[in-house]
């Protein structure tokens, strides 16, 4: 059933309450998600994006109940990724010759994924389409936010920015608008979305935000492709993105470790104690990597000024969980963050050196040589770990 967004603009998407993993198994979606598709019914009838392929037939059937499919004049594809374009093959069986407006890169991605030669109409930033009643759609290329093919579409008079993956969040809800959902959930899912998906492209985002501002378009709603529509103070999420894109950090130190026989775990807890002794105001979080959700941890890294990483030494190296997590952080290209290392060992003790090298390679400023302890920490070793935490807090 379609839901009115504003005037002659309707939501015709899908709420996915059961979604727990996204991008394969790369991203956790504890609160599900939505796939937002929008139907514009002015003098011209326009469909903006579709839904993920598993819901394609359901989407087309539901859409046909709301509008004669043959009366759809054209489709706008803001982004070719399958969670937005997955229903296109099923839809285009009913209207194979209708135009699809998208970027040149989107033509490549859509052809590459679906191997169809639909009626593609390439658009670039500033191109416009008259949809009647004095209203236009204006296209804004959003390359690498987060695919090369991404764009946003702006609707004049109603002043709606269909922003696709920018400004979204994975949050399943029957409510359409930001002011109707739990604000803690909304903020937490928004920052997690940014930290895990958009952070590598922060420099591009800063330029794109400036470009959108320079267009001087009044924005009364931001309608992303996941989660809720921003209607109450919609520019608040733009302001948040401007902050997050600017080498974001809070007054937080996060300790992340994996352990074999709990020696490294004990060091983590003592280091946290030391940080607290030295700084009563800093937020301290301690996480066992093996028992934590990595995407939630990435969000904590994003908020942190310093990340303290621990692993015991195993076969002259570090635990694969820690190595994988550091590699994940490297790919997300964090800036303006410090790092420190710790861990237990029995014989060779290389883990600290390896962590330091990997963290430096991931773009972190390594604070010290690190703290390592042979065998299980005794009282003296625990005191030394507390002192190490104090030292970390003072950087």
The portion of residues forming beta strands comes to 15-25%
CATH class of the largest domain: Alpha Beta
Q: What's the main sheet like?
A: 7 strands, mixed
Number of helices: 12
* Total tally of structural domains: 2
What name does the CATH topology of the largest domain carry? Metallo-beta-lactamase, Chain A
- CATH superfamily of the largest domain, called what? Ribonuclease Z/Hydroxyacylglutathione hydrolase-like
Terminal residue distance? 56 Å
CA-based shape: elongated
- CATH architecture of the largest domain, by name, is 4-Layer Sandwich
Assign the structural class, choosing from mainly alpha, mainly beta, alpha/beta, alpha+beta, or little secondary structure.
alpha/beta
Share of residues in helices? 25-40%
Cα-atom Rg, whole angstroms? 24 Å
Strand order, sheet with most strands: 1-2-7-8-9-10-11
Main attributes of the structure:
7-stranded mixed beta sheet; single chain; alpha/beta; 395 residues; Rossmann fold
């Amino acid at each position: 059933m379609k839901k009115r967004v504003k005037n002659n603009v309707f939501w015709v998407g899908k709420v996915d309450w059961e979604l727990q993993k996204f991008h394969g198994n790369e991203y956790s979606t504890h609160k599900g998600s939505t796939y937002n598709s929008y139907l514009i019914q002015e003098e011209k009838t326009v469909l903006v994006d579709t839904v993920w392929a598993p819901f394609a037939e359901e989407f087309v059937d539901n859409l046909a109940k709301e509008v004669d499919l043959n009366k759809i004049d054209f489709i706008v594809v803001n982004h070719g990724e399958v969670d937005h374009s997955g229903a296109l093959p099923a839809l285009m069986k009913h209207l194979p010759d209708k135009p699809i407006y998208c970027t040149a890169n989107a033509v490549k991605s859509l052809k590459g994924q679906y191997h169809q030669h639909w009626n593609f109409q390439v658009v670039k930033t500033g191109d416009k389409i008259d949809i009647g009643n004095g209203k236009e759609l204006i296209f804004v290329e959003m390359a690498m936010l987060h695919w090369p093919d991404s764009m946003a579409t702006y609707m004049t008079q109603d002043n709606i920015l269909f922003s696709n993956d920018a400004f979204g969040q994975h949050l399943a809800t029957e409510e359409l608008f930001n002011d109707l959902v739990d604000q803690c959930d909304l903020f937490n899912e928004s920052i997690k979305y940014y930290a895990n998906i958009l952070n590598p492209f922060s420099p591009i985002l800063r330029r794109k935000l400036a470009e959108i501002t320079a267009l001087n378009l009044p924005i009364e709603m931001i309608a992303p492709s996941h989660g809720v529509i921003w209607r109450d103070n919609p520019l608040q999420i733009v302001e948040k993105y401007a902050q997050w894109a600017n080498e974001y950090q809070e007054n937080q130190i996060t300790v992340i470790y994996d352990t074999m026989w709990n020696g490294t775990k004990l060091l983590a807890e003592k280091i946290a104690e030391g940080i607290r002794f030295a700084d009563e105001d800093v937020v301290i979080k301690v996480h066992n990597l093996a028992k934590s959700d990595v995407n939630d941890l990435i969000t904590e890294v994003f908020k942190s000024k310093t990340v303290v990483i621990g692993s015991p030494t195993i076969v002259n190296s570090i635990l694969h969980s820690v190595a994988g997590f550091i590699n994940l952080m490297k790919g997300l290209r964090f800036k303006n963050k410090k790092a420190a290392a710790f861990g237990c060992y029995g014989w060779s003790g290389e883990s600290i050196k390896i962590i330091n090298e990997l963290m430096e390679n991931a773009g972190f400023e390594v604070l010290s040589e690190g703290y390592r302890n042979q065998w299980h920490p005794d009282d003296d070793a625990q005191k030394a770990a507390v002192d190490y935490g104090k030292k970390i807090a003072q950087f």
